[in-house]
Amino acid sequence: MSTMAPINMTYDEAVARFDVEAATAFLSDEAGRFNAAEICCIRHARDSARVALRHRAPDGAMRDWTFAELDRASARFAGVLADLGVGKGDRVAGLLPRAPELLVTMFAAWRLGAVYQPLFTAFGPKAIEHRLTLGETRVIVTDPTNRPKLKEIASAPLIVTVGAGPDSGDTDFWSAMEGRPETLPSLGVDAGDPFLIMFTSGTTGLPKPLLVPVRAIAAFAGYVRDAVGLRPDDRMWNLADPGWAYGLYFGLAGPLALGATIVLHEGGFSVASAYDTIQEYGITNLAGSPTAYRQMVAAGPEAAARIKGQLRVVSSAGEPLNPEVIRWFREHLDAPIHDHYGQTEVGMVLCNHHALEHPVRIGSAGYAVPGHRVVVLSPDGRELGVGEPGELALDRKRSPLMWFTGYLGRDTPSLSEDYYRSGDMVEL
């Protein structure tokens, strides 16, 4: 799969040309093996100068990390995890800020065939314990800021801490890697084996766990290419936190699978720091939530003036995008902003695509992402037509990129043989 977005292709052409074998062919290596670290890092490390990460520290210091550097570091940390008993299918949690250690942890777990578990750093001890318990997590990697939260968890797993003190009892992240080999073969897994364990947001009840298979990376990359419209000459930044699905699926896994450079800003979000990062890194392709964009609007056009005309495209997800933001971005940033819809369970499935030509109507979530068939269902399961309100659903038999097969260890009434029902009400 190329990072090049299909310039001047219509949406109808993209749907007509879609082929699931072609869309997933890039997932396997030359030997037909599947491994998420291979897809998102190792293969791109053959170009020793290719930049994977542009990291901005809280003090504003910036450093580039190449795929090759992350490859070597993750091989060494995989040795640390293996010594702690991590193997295929085990859960490795990251309670980490948006820093290089997060990527090293993620790639190291995947090299071993293990499953990465993101933990939002704003979680308190109870939320963390709920996820560690249900996830049956073997190792958690954290930093000194978040480490105190684990003291209140009675049955915490093995702990690795970035900058662990000599008397902490924790494994220290960087010192444990010293002297270890910088190469380690990745473990081949099946395309249906999990590489992530995610939890729903909990807006409609307790957060529910689900496993994300390696083959889902094809859907993540397709969204980044077609809807986000990533091009080789773009500099992309996803504002979303990688502790949640949008930031992890489409800020890390999708772009990295395409060999693109990602940006991680370790500090908290502010309009001023966001504009600094966009300007100083030359960001041309921005993704995030309406909440962040509304803060940019509230800061006024004077604050935005220094980056006006720099952003080629902007993508929005996580909640409906209000028309005022769309008009403001067009007027004061000279940037088209498109609304996208998805869920933790299925990724992004309904979008106004930047890279595919189709009508864009303000207030509409757009068109089904190629590889998915989105329908509207009545309460008794009938597909509804234009202007008939109902429940948004995915046609499982005609959505070859759909990967969700149910929640871990519990019934999934929203999933039948024919459809996945989202619980969201819409109309065509």
Key structural traits:
about 20% strand, 12 helices, alpha/beta, about 425 residues, single chain, 5-stranded parallel β-sheet
User: How is the main sheet built?
Assistant: 6 strands, mixed
In angstroms, what is the radius of gyration? 21 Å
Q: Order of strands across the biggest sheet?
A: 11-13-14-15-16-18
Helical amount: 25-40%
Q: Given the helix and strand composition, which structural class is it?
A: alpha/beta
Strand content: 15-25%
Total helices: the number is 12
Distance between the termini: 31 Å
Averaging pLDDT over every residue, what do you get? Answer: 95
Runs in which pLDDT lies below 50 for 5 or more consecutive residues are none
Basic shape: globular
Number of β-strand runs: 21
Helix-strand layout with pairing:
Elements: E1 9-10, H1 11-17, H2 20-24, H3 36-40, E2 51-56, E3 62-66, H4 67-83, E4 91-95, H5 100-111, E5 115-118, H6 125-135, E6 137-142, E7 158-161, E8 171-172, E9 194-199, E10 209-213, H7 216-226, E11 236-238, H8 245-257, E12 262-265, H9 271-281, E13 285-288, H10 290-299, H11 301-304, E14 313-316, H12 323-333, E15 337-343, E16 347-351, E17 356-357, E18 367-368, E19 374-377, E20 390-395, E21 419-426
Parallel strand pairs: 1-17, 2-12, 4-5, 4-6, 6-7, 7-8, 11-13, 13-14, 14-15
Antiparallel strand pairs: 2-3, 9-10, 15-16, 16-18, 19-20, 20-21
